[in-house]
Amino acid sequence: MSADENRNEQVEEELKDTVEAAPEEETATEGSAEAGPESEIEALKAQAQEFQEQMLRSQAEMQNVRRRAEIDVEKAHKFALEKFVKELLPVADSLEKAVESTEGHENAGELVASIREGVEMTLNLFMGSLGKFNVVQLNPVGEPFDPQQHEAMSMVPAPDAEPNSVVAVVQKGYTLNDRLVRPAMVVVAKADDAPKIDEQA
């Protein structure tokens, strides 16, 4: 066999191998092409899910912020008058003291009676105005002592009163929309076996 024939046989074998390998390469290429879009789709799905979760978290956070803002605004509206009410309470105290000072002087004359009547009318008008803004007076005589609303000035023996109940009010308390503005200063009934309070302490 000549060299040319050998060369021709080698070329034919190479062509044959190339033709046989082509379908395999095409199949492999198609497989990789098919795998590529699927993995890309999965990645896009995961990314979309992540974006959706972020959006839901952002919406929940915005709702919480909006809810807190609404609560803050509501509190601001309800208690905006708190400082103003505190400044007005001494006026109510003074009017009440004026009425109390005329007690027992009914026979002092028409002048005292007319002054008392005028002060009482002014006090009632003043308290009515406070009531329109949900200001409520605390006058807890006979009620159990409540440390949330009362401030105990002293404890005294009171056989006719329940132990730990209020027997006298030194200064009345007030609330604004159920929030304590000023506690009532009270005297509390002491139980017979209650320890004595060291007033010098």
Characterise the protein shown here:
The chain has 201 residues and is α+β, with helices and mostly antiparallel strands. The chain has 3 domains: 1-80; 81-133; 134-196, Head domain of nucleotide exchange factor GrpE (Nucleotide Exchange Factor Grpe, Chain A, domain 2, Roll), CATH 2.30.22. The protein has helices at 3-79, 82-101, 110-132, and strands spanning 135-138, 150-157, 166-171, 173-176, 179-182, 184-190. Strands 1-4-5 form a 3-stranded antiparallel β-sheet. Strands 2-6-3 form a 3-stranded mixed β-sheet, with no helix packed on it. Mean pLDDT is 81; it is low at 28-33 and 197-201.
Q: Give the count of structural domains.
A: 3
Low-confidence spans: 28-33, 197-201
Fraction of residues in helix: 55-70%
Radius of gyration: 45 Å
Beta-strand residue percentage: 15-25%
Number of helices: 3
The main sheet orders its strands as 1-4-5
Strand element count = 6
Main β-sheet description = 3 strands, antiparallel
Q: Whole-number average pLDDT?
A: 81
- Going by helix content, strand content and strand pairing, the class is alpha+beta
